């Protein structure tokens, strides 16, 4: 039996739209083994067939290897809420591809996984941290995807703020303007550089300055009820805040676990139906083993 574990990911990170992503210490476990017929457990019934994203990614991996798709049983154990901006889809894609390589004893390299996964997902920001772990920049070039990895400062404390509702990625994208000014483009470029540097150094003041997105968050926050409640609480505790992916999850960042705890307690009282929990950064990325 093949066991694959993949971390949840948080993409965009405000000014890093469609290129920056973080791996989070919230892992999904997938198990693959031979079977007489396709069987998939651990997901809604409508996805327990060949339309399942894990299976489709496995099939794409088989195609890349020039192999026929075997019949199998896939078991999924996921703590990641669906359609909340923690990219459960990226974990499924990476797991399926990695399992296909292991199945035929021809493991894909990290770079090969990135290329294949991006072909399926559409953007590298979601899949690169699931593969590499940590903070990643996925750069789409004419020659393919280039991946840059960065360490995240140990002093930073992250808080996942997960609403009790979903946000459609298609709807979130439909709200975005078709073009922006040179001033906005320049702002995004400069602030994305500051963001990467501040995550590496743990400088909270620089991080607060960097997380000033003008490309997508001003439009997407309208889809997140009580966004202003969270933003005001973060301002009160001098924490940084960004929308994870297209939402609905929000991620708050501070440089003090005690402050994170006070922010959590405040938000749990204000938004009792939301899931609010501390979360660490995963540095390992996808892991594959025979069990």
TrEMBL record:
E.C. code: 2.7.1.39
Source organism of this protein record: Fructilactobacillus cliffordii
Keyword Endoplasmic reticulum part of the UniProt annotation: no
Superkingdom of the source species: Bacteria
Pathway: Amino-acid biosynthesis; L-threonine biosynthesis; L-threonine from L-aspartate: step 4/5
Function: Catalyzes the ATP-dependent phosphorylation of L-homoserine to L-homoserine phosphate.
Annotated Pfam families: GHMP_kinases_C (PF08544), GHMP_kinases_N (PF00288)
GO CC term, one of those recorded: cytoplasm
Keywords: Amino-acid biosynthesis, ATP-binding, Cytoplasm, Kinase, Nucleotide-binding, Threonine biosynthesis, Transferase
Listed name of the protein: Homoserine kinase
Keyword ATP-binding appears in the UniProt entry: yes
EC class name: transferase
Family statement drawn from the similarity comment of this UniProt entry: Belongs to the GHMP kinase family. Homoserine kinase subfamily.
């Amino acid at each position: 039996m093949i066991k694959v574990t993949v971390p949840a990911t948080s993409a965009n990170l405000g000014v890093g739209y469609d290129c920056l992503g973080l791996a989070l210490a919230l892992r999904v476990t997938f198990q693959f083994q031979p079977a007489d017929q396709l069987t998939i457990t651990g997901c809604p019934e409508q996805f327990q067939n060949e339309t399942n994203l894990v299976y489709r990614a496995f099939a794409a991996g088989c195609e890349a290897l020039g192999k026929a798709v075997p019949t199998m049983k896939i078991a999924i154990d996921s703590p990641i809420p669906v359609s909340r901006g923690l990219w459960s889809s990226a974990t499924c894609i990476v797991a399926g591809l990695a399992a296909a390589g292991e199945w035929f004893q021809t493991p894909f390299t990290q770079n090969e996984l990135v290329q294949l996964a991006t072909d399926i997902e559409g953007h590298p920001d979601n899949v690169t941290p699931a593969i590499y772990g940590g903070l990643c920049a996925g750069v789409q070039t004419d020659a393919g995807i280039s991946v840059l990895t960065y360490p995240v400062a140990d002093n930073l404390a992250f808080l996942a703020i997960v609403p009790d509702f979903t946000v459609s990625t298609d709807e979130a994208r439909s709200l975005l303007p078709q073009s922006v000014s040179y001033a906005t483009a320049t702002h995004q470029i400069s602030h994305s550089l500051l963001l990467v540097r501040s995550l590496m150094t743990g400088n909270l003041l620089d991080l607060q300055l960097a997380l000033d997105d003008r490309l997508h968050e001003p439009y997407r926050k309208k889809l997140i009820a009580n966004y202003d409640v969270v933003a005001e609480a973060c301002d009160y505790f001098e924490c940084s805040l960004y929308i994870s992916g297209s939402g609905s999850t929000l991620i708050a960042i501070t440089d003090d676990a005690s402050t994170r705890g006070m922010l959590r307690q405040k938000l749990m009282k204000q938004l009792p139906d939301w899931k609010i929990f501390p979360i660490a950064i995963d540095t390992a990325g996808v892991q594959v083993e025979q069990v």
